[in-house]
Amino acid sequence: MRSLPLPLALTARLTPVAVLACAGWALSSGPAAPSAADQRPDRETPTHAASAPSSTAVSKAYTAAPAPCTGVPVATIKSLVPGARTAGKEIPSTDTALRRTCSWNALQGYDYRWLDVSYEVTESDQEAKKEYEQRVGEKSGGGTVPGLGDAAYSVVNLTTEDKQQTREGVVMARISNALVIVTYNGSDFETKKAPGTDEINKGAIKAAKSAVAALQAGGSG
To answer: Does the N terminus or the C terminus of the chain have fewer Cβ atoms within 10 A?
Structure first.
C-alpha cells in the first residue's frame, strides 16, 4: 500500500500529545476541521424534526464536569473511530471542575476519523441557555435534535484544502446548567473525498446521546 502525503493541517492533527495540549479548551466550542479558520465552509443542513420540549430542571443541577473519556461507550468509539485507542486522550483544561474534553482520532489505511466530547458546567440554567444560544447562532445552517437534553442542535460543514475534503459534524446540547459539545469529522486520503453528510451527522448525534446520558447518570458531581 503506497503512502499518500497528508495536508499540513491534518498532519498537525495527527501529531500526538504536544499538539493536543496546546489546543486546550479551544476544542470545547467545536474544534475546527483542517483549514476551517482559513476557508468559509459550505453549510449542509441535516434534516431534523421539531425541537424537543424544554424541561424544567432546577438551576445548578450539575456542579462538576464528568470524566469525558468515559462518556461514550467503547463499542461506539470503535464504530465511529476505527483503530483509535478506546481510552481516549483528555485535553488539559484550566479548570477541570467546570470544563473537560476527551479526544479520539485514528488513521486506518487512508480513512481518518476524529471525535471530541466536551462538557462545560455553568453557574445556572440561564447562563447555560445564553451560552448555548450564542454558540448555535455562530453555527447557522443546522437543525434541532429532538429528545436530547433541554435543547440540542447539529450542523455539518464541508471544507476543502489542497483538494482534500473534510466533513465535520458538531452537536451542541444543553442539559440544565451544563453544555455537551461533540465534534466528529472524517476524510479519505485516497479518494480525497469526505464521508457523507448523513454518516457524519448520525455519528455525532450518536456520540452526543451517550455523552448526555453519562452526564445525567452522574448527577450533580
So the answer is: N
Higher pLDDT, 107 or 9: 107
Q: Residue type at 78?
A: K
120: in domain: yes
Q: Is 151 exposed, middle or buried (0-12, 13-18, 19+ CB in 10 A)?
A: buried
The reply to whether 2 falls in a domain is no
In this prediction, residue 11 carries a pLDDT of: 47
pTM reported for the whole predicted model: 0.74
Tell me the DSSP string of 8-48.
Answer: HHHHHHHS-HHHHHHHGGGGGG-PPPTTTTTSPPEEE----
pLDDT in tens, 103-123: 999 999 999 999 999 999 999
The number of domains in the chain is: 1
Residue 124 lies in a domain: yes
Confidence of residue 60 (pLDDT cuts 50, 70, 90): confident
Residues 123, 60 contacting (CB under 8 angstroms):
yes
For CA atoms 63, 69, 74, 77, give the dihedral sign. positive
